[in-house]
Structures are given as structure tokens and as C-alpha cells.
Specification:
The chain has 12 helices and no strands. By secondary structure, the chain is mainly alpha-helical. It folds into 2 domains: about 15-40 and about 150-205, Endonuclease Iii, domain 2, CATH 1.10.1670; about 50-145, Endonuclease III, domain 1, CATH 1.10.340. The chain is globular and about 55 Å long. About 35% of the residues are buried.
Length: about 210
């Protein structure tokens, strides 16, 4: 693991934290200096609703996910207690598929201590969240990165990150998840900054939105 420079933030809470992390990243891997700043902050609220929204968005378009979420909000079915007591019919009426109804109920039943997760390390967050049906490693790492502000977590399974790395490093093929995770080891302790940079580069190069 690379040593962390004095400017390396403990958490990513502000745009200044992103800028400080970016400076560290460019020292570690000068190739990232080709990506113009500033990089996006992309912080999100943490808690039950954030994870439920991630479940809602799985394998559907952004527009469809937004429509389903709006119906859940209108039905007041975004809180842990409300989802725990909601019937399958109520959740289905908002647009959730049967598997996602199961995942929503499983998340509500898990009774995760979201306050405790704020002080947990990345692997503890990932282990805790992936124990819930419907939450995979990608979702857990994204939650750690953007809802909790972890600096050194990397969602290696993200296709846009893989494509961004292929473009930036002129690779012959898009790296696999395993290859991407191994590659990202070199960017520790600011892998979350590297992810922001690769997403930005992917969008700039392809003129399309990435995975987020």
C-alpha cells in the first residue's frame, strides 16, 4: 500500500477533500493528471432509504427507477418500518418486481445499525451489507464510497470504471472485475478518488453517463 501524503483526507465530505485526494492520486499514478479537474463530490445521504433506492435501480433504466421511487415516496414506503409492514401487493403496486419485494423486505428485516456503519471500515461495511439478499458487493462499495465518504474503496465490478481504465491506460481490452481490482491496488489509499476520476474520464471520452 502506498503511503498517504499529508493532504490525504480521512473521509470525503467536501469538494476540498476530493481535490486533496486527487493531488495524492496524481503523485501515485501520474496518468490521472490527464483527467481534468475538479472531480465530482457525489456524496449521498446514508441509511435505509439509500440502500432501498439502490435495490429499486437494479436492472432497470434510470427513468424507470425514478418513476418507481416516486411511487414509493407517494405511498410513504421508503422508511424501514413502513417497508417491513408493507404487503407484497402494496410494494408491487409501486412497481417493484417480486424479487425486489423480497429484497426490500429482507433489507427492512435486517435492522442494520446505520449509525454504527458510519464509523466502520470498508470491509465491515461490505460484509454487513452483502449479508442482505439483493445487495451485492458493487452496491455495498458504492454505498461506502458515496454515502459514507470512504476514501479507499473501489467498485471494481462497475463497467464504466473498467471502460474508463481501458481508455486511460490504453489497454487492449476492458479489464475484468478481478483485473480491475488488482489494478486498483496501486491507487490505494485513494481508490475512491481514482473511481471518481475514471467515471469522469469515461463520460468525457464517450459523451455518455457512466454507471452512476
Amino acid at each position: 500500500m502506498n503511503g498517504c501524503a499529508a493532504t490525504c483526507p480521512a473521509r470525503i465530505e467536501t469538494e476540498a477533500d476530493v481535490a486533496a485526494g486527487r493531488a495524492v492520486l496524481m503523485e501515485i499514478a501520474p496518468e490521472f493528471s490527464r483527467i481534468p479537474g475538479p472531480l465530482p463530490l457525489r456524496r449521498r445521504p446514508d441509511g435505509f432509504a439509500a440502500l432501498l433506492q439502490a435495490i429499486v435501480g437494479q436492472q432497470v433504466s434510470t427513468a424507470s427507477a425514478a418513476a418507481i421511487w416516486a411511487r414509493l415516496e407517494a405511498a410513504e414506503l421508503c422508511a424501514e418500518g413502513a417497508v417491513a409492514t408493507a404487503s407484497e401487493e402494496q410494494l408491487r403496486a409501486c412497481g417493484l418486481s417480486r424479487p425486489k419485494v423480497r429484497y426490500a423486505h429482507a433489507l427492512a428485516s435486517a435492522r442494520i445499525d446505520y449509525t454504527a456503519l458510519r464509523g466502520a471500515d470498508s470491509e465491515t461495511v461490505v460484509t454487513t451489507l452483502t449479508a442482505v439478499p439483493g445487495i451485492g458487493r458493487w452496491t455495498a462499495e458504492i454505498y461506502a464510497k458515496f454515502a459514507l465518504g470512504h476514501v479507499d474503496v473501489f467498485a471494481a465490478g462497475d463497467l464504466a470504471l473498467q471502460e474508463g481504465a481501458k481508455l486511460l491506460f490504453d489497454l487492449p481490452a476492458r479489464p475484468t472485475e478481478r483485473e480491475m481490482r488488482a489494478m486498483a491496488e496501486a491507487w490505494s489509499p485513494v481508490r475512491a478518488i481514482a473511481a471518481r476520476a475514471l467515471w469522469a474520464y469515461y463520460r468525457e471520452q464517450t459523451k455518455r453517463e457512466g454507471a452512476l
